[in-house]
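Following up on my earlier thread - several people asked me to post the actual chain instead of describing it. Fair enough. Here it is, all 120 residues.
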Amino acid sequence: QVHLVESGGGLVQAGGSLTLSCTASGSIFHIVAMTWHRQAPGKQRELVASINAGGGTDYADFVKGRFTISRANTLHTVYLKMNSLKPEDTAVYYCNMRGYSDPKLWDDYWGQGTQVTVSS
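Reply from S.P.:
Thanks for posting it. Predicted structure:
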């Protein structure tokens, strides 16, 4: 089985910074990409940033220049460094692993989320 655990959320004032961490463990055959998503109350979950097996990164327009996604030595652990936080960044942030738990099983695996609250 595959398990993802996020950490690092909390309360911060506008303009402040937080760094989120996500670690994937269990039966992981191959990771295609690791991504961060967020969901505010009453809103649809949205993609924030991604990093793929080749090291390429991508960001939503609303976080470009402020957020940075990175990995440890492997994609099993990824980070989301968030700078210049705004109240509209307030949401539950989720980590997703897109890949294979074995050579024949493709799926998306989600963590439980970590709350980020930015005060004005």
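The radius of gyration is 14 Å. That should answer part of your original question.
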